[in-house]
Amino acid sequence: xxxxxxxxxxxxxxxxxxxxxxxxxxxxxxxxxxxxxxxxxxxxxxxxxxxxxxxxxxxxxxxxxxxxxxxxxxxxxxxxxxxxxxxxxxxxxxxxxxxxxxxxxxxxxxxxxxxxxxxxxxxxxxxxxxxxxxxxxxxxxxxxxxxxxxxxxxxxxxxxxxxxxxxxxxxxxxxxxxxxxxxxxxxxxxxxxxxxxxxxxxxxxxxxxxxxxxxxxxxxxxxxxxxxxxxxxxxxxxxxxxxxxxxxxxxxxxxxxxxxxxxxxxxxxxxxxxxxxxxxxxxxxxxxxxxxxxxxxxxxxxxxxxxxxxxxxxxxxxxxxxxxxxxxxxxxxxxxxxxxxxxxxxxxxxxxxxxxxxxxxxxxxxxxxxxxxxxxxxxxxxxxxxxxxxxxxxxxxxxxxxxxxxxxxxxxxx
Length: 414
Description:
Layout: H1 8-46, H2 71-91, E1 101-106, H3 120-128, E2 133-138, H4 139-149, H5 156-162, H6 166-180, E3 183-186, E4 190-192, H7 203-206, E5 218-225, H8 231-237, E6 243-245, E7 249-252, H9 258-277, H10 288-294, H11 297-311, H12 317-326, E8 356-358, E9 369-372, H13 374-377, E10 396-398, H14 408-413
Parallel strand pairs: 1-2, 1-3, 5-9
Antiparallel strand pairs: 3-7, 4-10, 5-6, 8-9
Transmembrane segments: 20-36
GO molecular function: alpha-1,6-mannosyltransferase activity
Keywords: Membrane, Transmembrane, Transmembrane helix
């Protein structure tokens, strides 16, 4: 039987093909190895770091977005929002109490919210609070709400439409909705450990009319409370600051909270500043840290503390506590330093064990604020004394999906 030999050209092509295949496989393995290492590093970051603490706490964080604020622009936005409030109040004859309504946001969906298929957490949240109205805001209904309600606010619609990520839009949108309508906002990945009215820490808000019922326009929870965190611990947790309020779960018992108005103003102002600082080609680039300080909990926390500092009397317990706790720290600076002396820092909110109520009557144009201990809404974290999802104080459990922070490996493989 004669042996047939492949033509020389065919054998050469096969060898070339085999080499290319081996090179491609090797390149793929190297690529996967590199990104698997990144994923492992990301996974390591999720493990609880060694609790390394500093000698002195940090009760005051200064965001770079407040280095050179455009006060004229902020005043313009604030004035325009007040005009919207005045028109709305005249139409409702001054009614400021908010309806019992739950708000959630899904900007990856279009059309009416009632047609959107939701996850179990969202459905359970509505079911457990069935006496409350429920409304899901989608991409379509969000645009309509902004056009119908805020057409007079400079830059708002343009800013909203030109954001590169939905997380920025969702941040701004929750402030707008709760400011204009009031109600209860919760992210889609929040599970109701208790009903809203069944939450022990919020009981004072739902008791019958009495002198003990606090008058507040906003209720917040604590998310991060680690003022003694060392620089090393901050790096391991990938934090820019060692304290902040929650903004994935917010309750506004009253419409037109001045605290939320400040959050809206700051979001637009910080966005404008971010765009002006960057070139045309890098304008759309937002890092995780910049998002947190432009529209997220970093900006939100500062907006709250700054508003309280500007409106409460100098002898208010929150301010005197802040000044007292600063004596051995020195973050407030000398008494002669404008804008720092006798202001509110994080000190009064550190290691909070009971709900703290700051009544609207304590200051003009502040609206009143309630702050809940970390275990109420911030449980399930591995820091700040948050406790587990099963903590007896727990009223909601946040799954911390953080889809906007995921690496490609986490998207693909979890």
